[in-house]
Automatic annotation (TrEMBL):
Residues 56-317 form the Carbohydrate kinase PfkB domain. The keyword Kinase applies. This is Adenosine kinase. The lineage of its organism: Bacteria, Pseudomonadati, Pseudomonadota, Alphaproteobacteria, Hyphomicrobiales. Belongs to the carbohydrate kinase PfkB family. Transmembrane segments: none annotated. PANTHER family: CARBOHYDRATE KINASE PFKB DOMAIN-CONTAINING PROTEIN, SUGAR KINASE. PROSITE patterns: PFKB_KINASES_2. It comes from Aurantimonas aggregata. Keywords: Kinase, Transferase. InterPro entries: Carb_kinase_PfkB-like, Carboh/pur_kinase_PfkB_CS, PfkB_dom, Ribokinase-like. CDD domains: adenosine_kinase.
Length: 333
């Protein structure tokens, strides 16, 4: 039996979350709804200009493994922080959840990564990310024993920004496949897809990646189509195992060969903050998948987890998800 349901690999980032309005985004020339990489000077400027904030460990893959353990799963995480105050915050937060995290911290410059996440009244989040120590994640940070012990190794597309992380991902995928495990990735956002479209397609077509998570705009960007349907057909042909495309309030579609499984979204009375919705969808789906549930039941867990997280501020569950009656019922099969 595997020691871990899921190993996630990602940019270890401390999230700094603040509420704002569209006028602030326009004034600061911030792309609404996307993730923009920024340098040290820009990070310092935005931190000084934004309002009161909540600081918590984050990063897409970190959020996913946090959600997974909140659903009763077992998880591990690879990601690079510096030996500094924010690095200590990240380590404490993720370990306190029960996630195995033992990546050696970086000594000296650059400091731990941070992302200024600006949430507008419509719940949309706009991320401005300083990668810092994240760019130092490399092959030496891949622990073969942890990869071999995980049913699924899952990484975020954002890792394609730091160059050495690419080598680490390819190495981890080779170890996973040599041990009969599977590799999953999330496309992260459409801006990321535009930057690395050819490389993402090669990861799928070469069999380096078995499972793909994307949202509607990312799938369309990947295949440069006008609508979703032709993108789904192309995705089905390229992915080794299966893919899942989320569609916000429309739910999701699982693509497995010529099968299309549509699952409706969980109704949410008050959308507070969409930060982490896709990350928590992956948590729920992967929890169901590694339990042996079918795609439909796994997708229902995904939409339930995502629906819960957008009703609160921040991407980490504030209540154990497996204690929520509607989610507990889904986990019970």
């Amino acid at each position: 039996m595997a020691d871990y349901d899921v190993l996630t690999i990602g940019n270890a980032i401390v999230d700094i979350i603040s509420r704002t309005d569209d006028a602030f985004l326009e004034r600061e020339a911030i792309q609404k709804g996307g993730m923009t990489l920024i340098d040290t000077a820009r990070a310092e400027h935005l931190y000084g200009a934004m309002g009161p904030a909540i600081e918590t460990s984050g990063g897409s893959a970190g959020n996913t493994v946090a959600g997974l353990v909140s659903l009763g799963g077992t998880g591990a995480y690879f990601g690079k922080v510096a030996n500094d105050q924010l690095g200590d915050i990240f380590k404490h937060d993720i370990r306190s959840l029960g996630v195995h995290f033992a990546t050696t911290p970086l000594e000296g410059h650059p400091p731990t990564a941070r992302s200024m996440i600006l949430v507008t009244p419509d719940g949309e989040r706009s991320m401005n990310t300083y990668l810092g120590a994240c760019v130092e994640l490399g092959p030496e940070d891949i622990d073969p024993a942890i990869v071999a012990a995980a049913k699924v190794t899952y990484f975020e597309g954002y890792l394609w920004d730091p160059p050495r992380a690419k080598q680490a991902i390819v190495e981890a995928a080779g170890i996973a496949h040599a041990n009969g495990r599977e590799v999953a990735m999330t496309l992260s956002d459409s801006f990321c897809v535009h930057r690395y479209r050819d490389e993402f397609l090669e990861l799928m077509r070469s069999g380096t990646v078995d499972i793909v998570f994307a949202n509607e705009s990312e799938a369309i960007a990947l295949y440069e189509t006008e609508t979703l349907e032709p993108a789904l057909d192309l995705l089905a042909a390229d992915v080794k195992r299966f893919a899942v495309v989320t569609r916000s309030e429309k739910g999701c579609i699982v693509i497995d060969g010529d099968k299309r499984i549509a699952v409706a979204a969980t109704p949410v009375a008050d959308v507070v903050d969409t930060t982490g919705a896709g990350d928590l969808f992956a948590s729920g789906f992967l929890r169901g998948y590694t339990m042996g549930l079918d795609h439909e039941k796994s997708a229902r867990l995904g939409v339930a987890a995502a629906g819960h997280i957008i009703g609160q501020v921040g991407p980490r569950p504030q209540t154990p998800l497996d204690r929520l009656p509607e989610i507990a019922a889904l986990l019970a099969g």
